[in-house]
Specification:
This protein is mainly alpha-helical. The chain has one domain. Helices cover 35% and strands 0% of the residues.
């Protein structure tokens, strides 16, 4: 995934400005301790394979 689209700034824009839901697969690491930002953490632990 392009790092620019994975930034917290971009996720905040998608959620708050566009009022859309962003869905992306979590990175290879487990848990959210290496993920920064409210929306990026949420996408990591709430990833929905079916919707993706």
């Amino acid at each position: 995934m392009n790092r620019g689209y994975d930034s917290e700034k971009m996720q905040r824009f998608v959620r708050e400005t566009l009022k859309a839901i962003s869905i992306r697969p979590p990175r290879s690491w487990k848990g959210t301790e290496h993920v920064w930002g409210k929306y990026r953490k949420e996408m990591t632990w709430k990833f929905d394979v079916t919707r993706y």
